[in-house]
Amino acid sequence: MKIHLTSVFVDDQAKALRFYTDVLGFVKKHDVPLGEARWLTVVSPENPEGTELLLEPSGHPAVAPYRTALVNDGIPAASFAVDDVRAEFDRLRGLGVRFTQEPLDMGPVTVAVLDDTCGNLIQIVHSG
């Protein structure tokens, strides 16, 4: 068994697609119109057949309190592996990305947390 698809709730799918592709570097995998929303997924360019991230509309009434609680408590909605947290922090900060936690060494892992501009905190991590 392996993870095929996971999702993050986003306020605006078009804005999220731009951020996740143009800034974070993912590539669009699926973009299927579904009425007012889209089935919109991105993948890592390093593994285009790997796990997909669904940029899911945040319209369900349970989403707002859930995301607000996570953000208020500083809890990331997702975690993405990078080769070098500090280098990625510098690259993303140079692109105007706002971080809520700068790189932090935590034993065998280094983490940082960023704001995805669509209502979520996202952690970047390197272990090794």
Structural account:
A four-stranded mixed β-sheet has the order 1-4-3-2, with helices on one face. It has a four-stranded mixed β-sheet with strand order 5-8-7-6. With 128 residues, it is of the alpha/beta class. The model has no long low-confidence stretch (mean pLDDT 97). The two termini are 24 Å apart. The protein is built from three helices and eight strands; from the N terminus they run βαβββαβαβββ.
Question: What features would you highlight for this structure?
Answer:
128 residues, four-stranded mixed sheet, 24% helix, alpha/beta, 3 helices
Per DSSP E runs of 2 or more residues, the count of β-strands stands at: 8
Whole-Å distance between the termini?
24 Å
Global shape? globular
Supply the helix-strand structural class.
alpha/beta
Strand order of the largest sheet: 1-4-3-2
Number of helices: 3
Helical content, roughly?
10-25%
Strand portion: 35-45%
Averaged pLDDT, please? 97
Residue windows where pLDDT falls under 50 for at least 5 positions: none
Radius of gyration: 15 Å
**Major sheet description:** 4 strands, mixed
Pattern of helices and strands = EHEEEHEHEEE
List the helices and strands and how they pair.
Layout lengths: L4 E6 L2 H11 L3 E8 L2 E7 L8 E6 L5 H10 L5 E4 L3 H10 L4 E8 L2 E7 L5 E7 L1
Parallel strand pairs: 1-4, 5-8
Antiparallel strand pairs: 2-3, 3-4, 6-7, 7-8
